[in-house]
Amino acid sequence: xxxxxxxxxxxxxxxxxxVYSKKGFVIALVSFLALMAGETQRAPAPPGFAQxxxxxxxxRDANRMVEAVRLYRQGxxxxxxxxxxxxxxxxxxxxxxRYAEGRDAFRRYxxxxxxxxxxxxxxxLCEFQTHDYxxxxxxxxxxDVLGYGGDEQIRRVARYHLGILLTRSGQFDLATxxxxxxxxxxxxxxASIIEALGIAGLRKPLxxxxxxxxxxxxxxxxxxxxxxxxxxxxxxxxxxxxxxVSAYPTTANVHYLYGSYLLSGEPDRGxxxxxxxxxISPRHVPALVDVALEYLKSGDAPGGIPYAAKAVEIEPGSxxxxxxxxxxxxxxxxxPKAIAELEMARKLAPDSPxxxxxxxxxxxxxxxxxxxxxxxxxxLKLKKQIP
Length: 387
What we know:
Layout: H1 2-20, H2 22-42, H3 49-61, H4 65-78, H5 83-95, H6 99-112, H7 117-129, H8 133-146, H9 152-168, H10 172-185, H11 191-201, H12 216-230, H13 234-247, H14 254-263, H15 267-280, H16 285-297, H17 301-314, H18 319-332, H19 335-348, H20 353-365, H21 369-385
Helix pairs in contact: 1-2, 3-4, 4-5, 5-6, 6-7, 7-8, 7-9, 8-9, 9-10, 9-11, 10-11, 11-12, 12-13, 13-14, 14-15, 15-16, 16-17, 16-18, 17-18, 18-19, 18-20, 19-20, 20-21
């Protein structure tokens, strides 16, 4: 573009000579060529986009990373919509631990390819390294939904960091599920995952690096029991939980974990362990909810109401506690109280299928057919969205 402008300017200055004589034309031509030679020496034209693409690829393949970064920067400046260029620039910066620059480049990349799970994952990892934990959690979560494009290395690192970020934010059960998912994808036991599972299982909102040294054995023993349960090594898991409870009989969350593990196969023993947890931690909301729902499953809904009511008292803004209490009231025959609790649960979490189907049943018992049909339709739509 610059060169064309200079040629046009030179021709315009030569026009008067061209009109009057051949000699004038020759003089003008010589002057123009001299002018262009001088301009070329002073400011060489930048290489074209195609040339930069080729040079950048060659530098990357030859492991000349600093040069490759420079060339990819030139390329995306010339063509900001060059998606591949933003990807290579961002990943090169990430590999060089230049996380702030990598973060900015990945943001541009995902703005061009919003369905790239690996792009969102690496953006989240850059944000993690720059201590922007809120955005890191959101973007790593998005990557986990979109998938990792078959890249096991990115999946392994991203899902682990997603797990520890969920733990730090207090989402312990979801953190455990994500870490167990990764544990099942690993060919062998991974000490980092076991440690992270231990911290999540003990419901400590900490990063592994922040955990107290004196709790290391407790964390690893807890994590291993949760890990063995998660990878379905039942005999080993049962032994590990028994050893954990024996070693730490009064430590918070230990009996809760063991009780939760036992509920599916030995509900009576599981319920006893959960009640033991409540003796140690009377305000343990997950234990209160699990005990309440165990009464519901066994057909003794009135027996579960005090536990669910206490859970609501402790965490009134939790849709889980409200939904549990609403279901118990419904099974106990108090439909108005059930509707009140379930409507509050719906307000707190409108995307909960469990709440919608329970509310549909409650409305039906109250004779509110249109409301029941609406909630059942919402339930069916939400159910389809669940993987």
